[in-house]
Amino acid sequence: xxxVQDESGALKSAKTEDAVLPAxxxxxxxxxxxxxxxxxxxxxxxxxxxxxxxxxxxxxxxLIWLVACVYISLPWIRDLSVIFGAPLxxxxxxxxxxxxxxxxxxxxxGLFADRRPEFIPDRSRLQPISILIAAxxxxxxxxxxxxxxxxxxxxxxxxVIVVDDGSKxxxxxxxxxxxxxxxxxxxxxxxxLKSLEKNGGKANALNEALSxxxxxxxxxxxxxSYLYKDGLxxxxxxxxxxxxxxxAVAGTVMVRNSRINWITKLQEWDYFHGIAVVKRIQSLYQxxxxxxxxxxxxxxxxxEEVGGWTNTxxxxxxxxxxxxxxxxxxxxxxxxxIFTNVPETYKQFFRQxxxxxxxxxxxxxxxxxxxxxxxxxxxxxxxxxxxxxxxxVFAFVFIPGLLAAVIWQNYAIVSIMTLTLYPLAFLIxxxxxxxxxxxxxxxxxxxxxxxxxxTAYMFTYQFLMVPATIAGYAAETLNLKKSxxxx
Length: 487
Fold this sequence. Notes:
By secondary structure, the chain is α/β, with parallel strands linked by helices. Helix content is 52%, strand content 13%.
Protein backbone atom coordinates (compact mmCIF):
# COMPACT_ATOMS: atom_id res chain seq x y z
CA UNK A 1 0.00 0.00 0.00
CA UNK A 2 1.23 3.47 -0.79
CA UNK A 3 0.99 6.89 0.71
CA VAL A 4 1.88 10.41 -0.25
CA GLN A 5 5.51 11.15 -0.84
CA ASP A 6 7.87 11.21 -3.81
CA GLU A 7 10.66 8.71 -4.23
CA SER A 8 13.50 11.21 -3.97
CA GLY A 9 12.14 12.88 -0.82
CA ALA A 10 13.37 16.34 -1.85
CA LEU A 11 12.03 19.47 -3.45
CA LYS A 12 14.20 20.41 -6.40
CA SER A 13 14.50 24.15 -6.12
CA ALA A 14 17.43 26.51 -6.35
CA LYS A 15 19.26 27.49 -3.16
CA THR A 16 17.13 25.29 -0.86
CA GLU A 17 19.59 22.51 -0.10
CA ASP A 18 19.70 23.31 3.61
CA ALA A 19 15.98 23.96 4.05
CA VAL A 20 13.49 21.61 5.63
CA LEU A 21 11.18 21.03 2.68
CA PRO A 22 8.18 18.77 2.06
CA ALA A 23 9.43 15.30 1.28
CA UNK A 24 6.42 14.69 -0.93
CA UNK A 25 7.19 17.31 -3.54
CA UNK A 26 8.94 16.66 -6.81
CA UNK A 27 8.86 19.29 -9.53
CA UNK A 28 7.50 17.73 -12.73
CA UNK A 29 9.58 17.54 -15.86
CA UNK A 30 8.30 18.11 -19.37
CA UNK A 31 4.79 19.53 -19.61
CA UNK A 32 3.72 22.41 -17.39
CA UNK A 33 0.60 22.19 -15.26
CA UNK A 34 -1.16 24.45 -17.77
CA UNK A 35 -0.39 22.13 -20.68
CA UNK A 36 -1.49 19.08 -18.73
CA UNK A 37 -4.78 20.69 -17.76
CA UNK A 38 -5.36 21.87 -21.33
CA UNK A 39 -4.78 18.38 -22.65
CA UNK A 40 -7.14 17.01 -20.05
CA UNK A 41 -9.79 19.54 -21.02
CA UNK A 42 -9.43 18.59 -24.67
CA UNK A 43 -10.61 15.04 -24.01
CA UNK A 44 -14.16 14.06 -24.83
CA UNK A 45 -16.45 15.24 -22.03
CA UNK A 46 -18.54 12.65 -20.23
CA UNK A 47 -22.25 12.85 -19.66
CA UNK A 48 -23.02 15.55 -17.12
CA UNK A 49 -25.44 14.90 -14.28
CA UNK A 50 -26.46 17.92 -12.15
CA UNK A 51 -25.42 17.75 -8.47
CA UNK A 52 -29.02 17.56 -7.21
CA UNK A 53 -29.54 14.31 -9.10
CA UNK A 54 -26.22 12.94 -7.87
CA UNK A 55 -27.39 13.79 -4.36
CA UNK A 56 -30.63 11.86 -4.90
CA UNK A 57 -28.77 8.85 -6.25
CA UNK A 58 -26.24 8.85 -3.42
CA UNK A 59 -28.96 9.30 -0.80
CA UNK A 60 -31.00 6.48 -2.32
CA UNK A 61 -28.04 4.12 -2.38
CA UNK A 62 -27.16 4.99 1.22
CA LEU A 63 -30.74 4.38 2.40
CA ILE A 64 -30.85 1.00 0.64
CA TRP A 65 -27.56 0.14 2.32
CA LEU A 66 -28.97 1.19 5.70
CA VAL A 67 -32.11 -0.92 5.31
CA ALA A 68 -30.01 -3.95 4.35
CA CYS A 69 -27.71 -3.42 7.35
CA VAL A 70 -30.63 -3.15 9.76
CA TYR A 71 -32.23 -6.31 8.37
CA ILE A 72 -28.99 -8.30 8.64
CA SER A 73 -28.39 -6.98 12.17
CA LEU A 74 -31.79 -7.93 13.62
CA PRO A 75 -30.44 -11.09 15.34
CA TRP A 76 -27.63 -9.01 16.88
CA ILE A 77 -30.14 -6.42 18.10
CA ARG A 78 -32.32 -9.14 19.66
CA ASP A 79 -29.33 -10.56 21.54
CA LEU A 80 -28.31 -7.11 22.77
CA SER A 81 -31.90 -6.39 23.83
CA VAL A 82 -31.79 -9.33 26.22
CA ILE A 83 -28.74 -7.80 27.93
CA PHE A 84 -29.36 -4.05 27.70
CA GLY A 85 -33.01 -3.68 26.75
CA ALA A 86 -34.35 -2.74 23.31
CA PRO A 87 -33.82 1.09 23.44
CA LEU A 88 -30.16 0.81 24.44
CA UNK A 89 -29.59 -2.05 22.01
CA UNK A 90 -30.84 0.07 19.11
CA UNK A 91 -28.76 3.01 20.32
CA UNK A 92 -25.61 0.87 20.40
CA UNK A 93 -26.11 -0.63 16.93
CA UNK A 94 -27.04 2.76 15.48
CA UNK A 95 -23.85 4.36 16.81
CA UNK A 96 -21.52 1.48 16.00
CA UNK A 97 -22.87 0.30 12.66
CA UNK A 98 -25.88 2.01 11.12
CA UNK A 99 -24.87 5.68 10.97
CA UNK A 100 -21.21 4.99 10.02
CA UNK A 101 -22.40 2.55 7.38
CA UNK A 102 -24.88 5.08 6.00
CA UNK A 103 -22.14 7.72 5.78
CA UNK A 104 -19.68 5.34 4.11
CA UNK A 105 -22.26 4.28 1.54
CA UNK A 106 -23.01 7.94 0.80
CA UNK A 107 -19.30 8.69 0.31
CA UNK A 108 -18.74 5.66 -1.92
CA UNK A 109 -21.60 6.57 -4.24
CA GLY A 110 -20.40 10.19 -4.26
CA LEU A 111 -16.91 9.11 -5.32
CA PHE A 112 -18.33 7.16 -8.25
CA ALA A 113 -20.53 10.12 -9.24
CA ASP A 114 -17.77 12.71 -8.90
CA ARG A 115 -16.87 14.30 -12.25
CA ARG A 116 -15.28 17.54 -11.18
CA PRO A 117 -14.91 20.42 -13.66
CA GLU A 118 -11.41 21.20 -14.89
CA PHE A 119 -10.47 24.86 -15.16
CA ILE A 120 -7.68 25.86 -17.52
CA PRO A 121 -5.63 28.62 -15.86
CA ASP A 122 -5.86 31.78 -17.96
CA ARG A 123 -3.05 34.06 -16.81
CA SER A 124 -4.67 37.09 -18.43
CA ARG A 125 -7.77 36.73 -16.22
CA LEU A 126 -5.96 36.44 -12.90
CA GLN A 127 -6.26 39.29 -10.43
CA PRO A 128 -4.08 40.81 -7.70
CA ILE A 129 -4.26 38.90 -4.42
CA SER A 130 -3.67 39.68 -0.75
CA ILE A 131 -2.18 36.85 1.33
CA LEU A 132 -2.89 37.00 5.08
CA ILE A 133 -0.52 35.22 7.47
CA ALA A 134 -1.12 35.13 11.22
CA ALA A 135 2.16 34.20 12.88
CA UNK A 136 2.90 33.21 16.47
CA UNK A 137 6.35 31.86 17.38
CA UNK A 138 7.14 30.82 13.81
CA UNK A 139 10.79 31.85 13.51
CA UNK A 140 11.77 28.35 12.36
CA UNK A 141 9.31 28.22 9.45
CA UNK A 142 8.19 31.71 8.40
CA UNK A 143 11.18 32.31 6.08
CA UNK A 144 10.49 29.18 4.00
CA UNK A 145 6.78 29.99 3.89
CA UNK A 146 7.48 33.44 2.50
CA UNK A 147 10.01 31.99 0.06
CA UNK A 148 7.42 29.55 -1.26
CA UNK A 149 5.20 32.54 -2.03
CA UNK A 150 8.03 34.37 -3.78
CA UNK A 151 8.79 31.26 -5.86
CA UNK A 152 5.25 31.13 -7.23
CA UNK A 153 4.93 32.05 -10.91
CA UNK A 154 1.88 34.22 -10.28
CA UNK A 155 1.48 36.79 -13.10
CA UNK A 156 -0.23 39.57 -11.12
CA UNK A 157 0.58 41.52 -7.96
CA UNK A 158 0.87 39.74 -4.63
CA UNK A 159 0.40 41.54 -1.35
CA VAL A 160 1.68 39.55 1.63
CA ILE A 161 0.48 40.76 5.04
CA VAL A 162 2.13 39.15 8.06
CA VAL A 163 0.63 39.90 11.47
CA ASP A 164 2.90 38.81 14.30
CA ASP A 165 0.55 37.87 17.12
CA GLY A 166 2.77 38.79 20.05
CA SER A 167 5.47 36.18 19.35
CA LYS A 168 8.05 35.53 22.05
CA UNK A 169 10.73 34.42 19.60
CA UNK A 170 12.41 36.02 16.58
CA UNK A 171 9.50 35.73 14.13
CA UNK A 172 9.49 39.48 13.45
CA UNK A 173 13.25 39.50 12.76
CA UNK A 174 12.88 36.64 10.28
CA UNK A 175 10.14 38.49 8.39
CA UNK A 176 12.26 41.63 8.25
CA UNK A 177 15.26 39.69 6.98
CA UNK A 178 13.15 38.22 4.20
CA UNK A 179 11.76 41.65 3.38
CA UNK A 180 15.32 42.92 2.89
CA UNK A 181 16.06 40.01 0.54
CA UNK A 182 12.96 40.86 -1.49
CA UNK A 183 13.74 44.59 -1.68
CA UNK A 184 14.24 44.41 -5.44
CA UNK A 185 10.94 42.65 -6.11
CA UNK A 186 8.53 45.14 -4.53
CA UNK A 187 6.87 45.76 -7.89
CA UNK A 188 5.64 42.14 -7.93
CA UNK A 189 5.43 41.18 -4.25
CA UNK A 190 4.74 43.72 -1.54
CA UNK A 191 5.36 42.57 2.01
CA UNK A 192 3.65 44.23 4.96
CA LEU A 193 4.38 43.45 8.62
CA LYS A 194 2.29 44.40 11.63
CA SER A 195 3.46 43.40 15.09
CA LEU A 196 0.97 43.09 17.92
CA GLU A 197 2.30 43.57 21.43
CA LYS A 198 -0.04 41.06 23.01
CA ASN A 199 -1.19 37.66 21.77
CA GLY A 200 -4.86 38.00 20.82
CA GLY A 201 -5.53 34.77 18.95
CA LYS A 202 -5.56 33.79 15.30
CA ALA A 203 -8.96 35.31 14.49
CA ASN A 204 -7.88 38.72 15.78
CA ALA A 205 -4.60 38.54 13.84
CA LEU A 206 -6.41 37.64 10.62
CA ASN A 207 -8.87 40.49 11.06
CA GLU A 208 -5.94 42.87 11.59
CA ALA A 209 -4.41 41.59 8.36
CA LEU A 210 -7.73 41.89 6.53
CA SER A 211 -7.97 45.56 7.50
CA UNK A 212 -4.67 46.15 5.69
CA UNK A 213 -5.58 44.20 2.54
CA UNK A 214 -6.03 46.30 -0.59
CA UNK A 215 -7.03 43.64 -3.15
CA UNK A 216 -10.43 42.06 -3.84
CA UNK A 217 -9.23 38.48 -3.48
CA UNK A 218 -7.84 37.35 -0.12
CA UNK A 219 -5.91 34.16 0.63
CA UNK A 220 -5.14 32.86 4.12
CA UNK A 221 -1.97 30.88 4.62
CA UNK A 222 -0.44 29.30 7.73
CA UNK A 223 3.02 30.47 8.73
CA UNK A 224 4.42 26.92 8.72
CA SER A 225 3.20 25.91 5.26
CA TYR A 226 4.91 25.51 1.91
CA LEU A 227 3.11 26.35 -1.34
CA TYR A 228 3.48 23.79 -4.10
CA LYS A 229 4.02 24.83 -7.70
CA ASP A 230 1.12 26.83 -9.22
CA GLY A 231 -0.79 26.68 -5.93
CA LEU A 232 -1.79 30.36 -6.08
CA UNK A 233 -2.69 30.19 -9.78
CA UNK A 234 -4.85 27.09 -9.40
CA UNK A 235 -6.64 28.33 -6.28
CA UNK A 236 -7.42 31.74 -7.78
CA UNK A 237 -8.46 30.18 -11.10
CA UNK A 238 -10.97 27.95 -9.34
CA UNK A 239 -12.63 30.89 -7.60
CA UNK A 240 -12.75 33.06 -10.71
CA UNK A 241 -14.32 30.25 -12.74
CA UNK A 242 -16.92 29.30 -10.12
CA UNK A 243 -20.45 30.66 -9.97
CA UNK A 244 -20.92 34.23 -8.78
CA UNK A 245 -22.37 33.05 -5.46
CA UNK A 246 -19.13 31.26 -4.57
CA UNK A 247 -17.55 33.13 -1.66
CA ALA A 248 -14.59 30.88 -0.91
CA VAL A 249 -12.53 27.98 -2.21
CA ALA A 250 -10.53 25.67 0.05
CA GLY A 251 -7.16 24.50 -1.19
CA THR A 252 -5.63 21.07 -0.66
CA VAL A 253 -3.48 20.59 2.43
CA MET A 254 -0.95 17.76 2.56
CA VAL A 255 1.57 16.72 5.20
CA ARG A 256 5.03 18.23 4.93
CA ASN A 257 6.82 16.41 7.77
CA SER A 258 5.35 12.94 7.25
CA ARG A 259 8.64 11.07 7.57
CA ILE A 260 9.40 12.25 11.10
CA ASN A 261 7.78 9.45 13.14
CA TRP A 262 4.77 7.18 13.51
CA ILE A 263 2.25 9.92 14.37
CA THR A 264 3.14 12.03 11.32
CA LYS A 265 2.92 8.95 9.07
CA LEU A 266 -0.63 8.32 10.29
CA GLN A 267 -1.63 11.93 9.72
CA GLU A 268 -0.23 11.71 6.19
CA TRP A 269 -3.00 9.25 5.39
CA ASP A 270 -5.62 11.32 7.18
CA TYR A 271 -4.85 14.35 5.02
CA PHE A 272 -4.38 12.31 1.83
CA HIS A 273 -7.48 10.16 2.23
CA GLY A 274 -9.84 11.36 4.91
CA ILE A 275 -9.71 15.15 4.78
CA ALA A 276 -9.05 15.63 1.06
CA VAL A 277 -11.67 13.14 -0.11
CA VAL A 278 -14.39 14.35 2.26
CA LYS A 279 -13.81 17.92 1.06
CA ARG A 280 -14.00 16.63 -2.50
CA ILE A 281 -17.40 15.01 -1.92
CA GLN A 282 -18.72 18.03 0.00
CA SER A 283 -17.67 20.25 -2.90
CA LEU A 284 -19.53 17.94 -5.28
CA TYR A 285 -22.68 19.16 -3.53
CA GLN A 286 -21.46 22.78 -3.57
CA UNK A 287 -20.86 23.11 0.14
CA UNK A 288 -17.41 22.33 1.53
CA UNK A 289 -17.90 22.62 5.31
CA UNK A 290 -14.49 24.09 6.16
CA UNK A 291 -12.48 26.54 4.10
CA UNK A 292 -9.45 25.91 6.29
CA UNK A 293 -7.38 28.87 7.42
CA UNK A 294 -4.18 27.11 6.37
CA UNK A 295 -4.93 27.66 2.66
CA UNK A 296 -8.17 29.12 1.28
CA UNK A 297 -9.23 32.02 -0.92
CA UNK A 298 -12.12 34.40 -0.22
CA UNK A 299 -13.82 37.35 -1.80
CA UNK A 300 -12.85 40.29 0.38
CA UNK A 301 -16.27 41.97 0.13
CA UNK A 302 -17.92 38.83 1.51
CA UNK A 303 -15.46 38.63 4.40
CA GLU A 304 -16.29 42.23 5.26
CA GLU A 305 -20.01 41.53 4.91
CA VAL A 306 -19.92 38.77 7.55
CA GLY A 307 -17.54 40.68 9.83
CA GLY A 308 -14.44 38.57 9.21
CA TRP A 309 -13.35 35.90 11.67
CA THR A 310 -14.92 35.50 15.11
CA ASN A 311 -12.79 34.98 18.21
CA THR A 312 -13.30 31.23 18.49
CA UNK A 313 -11.11 28.11 18.62
CA UNK A 314 -12.36 27.03 15.19
CA UNK A 315 -12.38 30.41 13.49
CA UNK A 316 -12.25 28.86 10.01
CA UNK A 317 -15.22 26.49 10.39
CA UNK A 318 -17.29 29.19 12.13
CA UNK A 319 -16.59 31.60 9.27
CA UNK A 320 -17.40 28.95 6.65
CA UNK A 321 -20.74 28.15 8.26
CA UNK A 322 -21.53 31.86 8.38
CA UNK A 323 -21.02 31.88 4.61
CA UNK A 324 -23.35 28.90 4.24
CA UNK A 325 -25.95 30.65 6.37
CA UNK A 326 -25.76 33.58 3.96
CA UNK A 327 -26.40 31.16 1.05
CA UNK A 328 -22.91 31.48 -0.38
CA UNK A 329 -21.19 28.45 -1.89
CA UNK A 330 -17.83 27.17 -0.70
CA UNK A 331 -15.85 24.91 -3.01
CA UNK A 332 -12.66 22.87 -3.05
CA UNK A 333 -9.68 22.99 -5.44
CA UNK A 334 -7.81 19.69 -5.41
CA UNK A 335 -5.02 21.01 -7.68
CA UNK A 336 -4.12 23.93 -5.40
CA UNK A 337 -1.72 22.37 -2.91
CA ILE A 338 0.29 23.32 0.12
CA PHE A 339 2.27 21.19 2.53
CA THR A 340 2.01 21.88 6.22
CA ASN A 341 3.74 20.67 9.36
CA VAL A 342 1.51 18.44 11.48
CA PRO A 343 1.93 17.62 15.19
CA GLU A 344 4.94 15.40 15.86
CA THR A 345 3.90 14.14 19.30
CA TYR A 346 0.67 12.62 20.51
CA LYS A 347 0.32 15.45 23.03
CA GLN A 348 0.40 18.03 20.23
CA PHE A 349 -1.95 15.89 18.13
CA PHE A 350 -4.37 15.57 21.06
CA ARG A 351 -4.46 19.33 21.55
CA GLN A 352 -4.98 20.02 17.85
CA UNK A 353 -7.88 17.55 17.47
CA UNK A 354 -9.39 18.77 20.73
CA UNK A 355 -9.32 22.29 19.31
CA UNK A 356 -10.93 21.10 16.06
CA UNK A 357 -13.68 19.36 18.03
CA UNK A 358 -14.32 22.54 20.03
CA UNK A 359 -14.49 24.40 16.74
CA UNK A 360 -17.26 22.11 15.51
CA UNK A 361 -19.37 22.75 18.61
CA UNK A 362 -18.65 26.47 18.29
CA UNK A 363 -19.95 26.41 14.73
CA UNK A 364 -23.24 24.86 15.83
CA UNK A 365 -23.52 27.31 18.73
CA UNK A 366 -22.79 30.32 16.52
CA UNK A 367 -24.93 29.22 13.56
CA UNK A 368 -27.56 26.70 14.73
CA UNK A 369 -29.88 27.55 11.86
CA UNK A 370 -27.66 25.72 9.37
CA UNK A 371 -29.23 22.52 10.69
CA UNK A 372 -32.63 23.60 9.41
CA UNK A 373 -31.53 25.55 6.32
CA UNK A 374 -31.90 22.85 3.66
CA UNK A 375 -29.10 22.86 1.11
CA UNK A 376 -27.36 20.25 -0.99
CA UNK A 377 -24.65 19.90 1.66
CA UNK A 378 -27.16 19.45 4.53
CA UNK A 379 -26.44 15.69 4.87
CA UNK A 380 -22.86 16.54 5.85
CA UNK A 381 -23.99 19.12 8.40
CA UNK A 382 -26.44 16.64 9.92
CA UNK A 383 -23.70 14.00 10.02
CA UNK A 384 -21.35 16.44 11.76
CA UNK A 385 -24.07 17.06 14.35
CA UNK A 386 -23.90 13.34 15.18
CA UNK A 387 -20.13 13.31 15.76
CA UNK A 388 -20.39 13.72 19.58
CA UNK A 389 -22.85 10.81 19.74
CA UNK A 390 -20.78 8.58 17.45
CA UNK A 391 -17.51 9.29 19.24
CA UNK A 392 -19.11 8.71 22.64
CA VAL A 393 -20.50 5.34 21.55
CA PHE A 394 -17.14 4.39 20.09
CA ALA A 395 -15.26 5.32 23.28
CA PHE A 396 -17.65 3.97 25.91
CA VAL A 397 -19.30 1.07 24.09
CA PHE A 398 -17.22 -0.18 21.17
CA ILE A 399 -13.81 -0.05 22.87
CA PRO A 400 -15.05 -1.85 26.04
CA GLY A 401 -16.83 -4.33 23.76
CA LEU A 402 -13.62 -4.95 21.85
CA LEU A 403 -11.70 -5.52 25.08
CA ALA A 404 -14.40 -7.90 26.29
CA ALA A 405 -14.14 -9.88 23.05
CA VAL A 406 -10.34 -10.11 23.08
CA ILE A 407 -9.78 -10.70 26.81
CA TRP A 408 -12.89 -12.56 27.98
CA GLN A 409 -14.27 -13.88 24.65
CA ASN A 410 -17.52 -12.03 25.28
CA TYR A 411 -18.89 -11.17 21.84
CA ALA A 412 -22.09 -9.41 22.81
CA ILE A 413 -21.02 -6.06 21.34
CA VAL A 414 -18.03 -6.88 19.12
CA SER A 415 -18.28 -10.22 17.35
CA ILE A 416 -16.96 -11.94 14.25
CA MET A 417 -19.54 -9.96 12.27
CA THR A 418 -17.54 -6.83 13.05
CA LEU A 419 -14.84 -8.11 10.71
CA THR A 420 -17.30 -7.82 7.82
CA LEU A 421 -16.95 -4.03 8.12
CA TYR A 422 -13.34 -4.13 6.98
CA PRO A 423 -14.00 -5.09 3.33
CA LEU A 424 -16.13 -1.94 3.04
CA ALA A 425 -13.38 0.11 4.68
CA PHE A 426 -10.79 -1.30 2.28
CA LEU A 427 -13.10 -0.58 -0.66
CA ILE A 428 -13.51 3.03 0.40
CA UNK A 429 -9.77 3.48 0.88
CA UNK A 430 -9.06 1.82 -2.45
CA UNK A 431 -11.37 4.21 -4.30
CA UNK A 432 -9.97 7.16 -2.39
CA UNK A 433 -6.42 6.13 -3.26
CA UNK A 434 -7.29 5.76 -6.95
CA UNK A 435 -8.87 9.22 -7.07
CA UNK A 436 -6.03 10.90 -5.18
CA UNK A 437 -3.33 9.15 -7.20
CA UNK A 438 -4.82 10.54 -10.42
CA UNK A 439 -4.63 14.06 -8.99
CA UNK A 440 -1.05 13.55 -7.86
CA UNK A 441 -0.05 12.27 -11.29
CA UNK A 442 -1.69 15.28 -12.91
CA UNK A 443 0.25 17.60 -10.60
CA UNK A 444 3.57 15.85 -11.30
CA UNK A 445 3.77 14.27 -7.84
CA UNK A 446 4.67 10.69 -7.02
CA UNK A 447 3.44 8.55 -4.17
CA UNK A 448 5.79 6.63 -1.94
CA UNK A 449 5.45 3.32 -0.15
CA UNK A 450 4.19 3.65 3.41
CA UNK A 451 2.60 0.35 4.38
CA UNK A 452 3.02 1.05 8.07
CA UNK A 453 1.23 4.39 7.83
CA UNK A 454 -1.71 2.88 5.95
CA THR A 455 -2.08 -0.11 8.27
CA ALA A 456 -1.87 2.04 11.39
CA TYR A 457 -4.29 4.55 9.90
CA MET A 458 -6.85 1.84 9.14
CA PHE A 459 -6.73 0.08 12.50
CA THR A 460 -5.64 2.61 15.13
CA TYR A 461 -6.38 6.17 14.03
CA GLN A 462 -9.88 6.31 15.45
CA PHE A 463 -8.64 5.01 18.80
CA LEU A 464 -6.06 7.81 18.96
CA MET A 465 -8.41 10.57 17.87
CA VAL A 466 -11.59 9.88 19.87
CA PRO A 467 -10.20 10.79 23.32
CA ALA A 468 -9.20 14.20 21.94
CA THR A 469 -12.54 14.86 20.23
CA ILE A 470 -14.55 13.90 23.31
CA ALA A 471 -12.38 16.20 25.42
CA GLY A 472 -13.05 18.98 22.91
CA TYR A 473 -16.81 18.45 22.87
CA ALA A 474 -16.89 18.46 26.68
CA ALA A 475 -14.66 21.53 27.00
CA GLU A 476 -16.82 23.61 24.66
CA THR A 477 -20.09 22.36 26.13
CA LEU A 478 -18.87 23.35 29.60
CA ASN A 479 -17.41 26.66 28.29
CA LEU A 480 -13.97 25.90 29.69
CA LYS A 481 -11.07 28.31 29.19
CA LYS A 482 -9.78 28.43 25.62
CA SER A 483 -6.15 28.32 24.59
CA UNK A 484 -4.46 27.59 21.25
CA UNK A 485 -2.05 25.09 22.84
CA UNK A 486 -0.74 23.15 19.83
CA UNK A 487 2.91 24.23 19.85
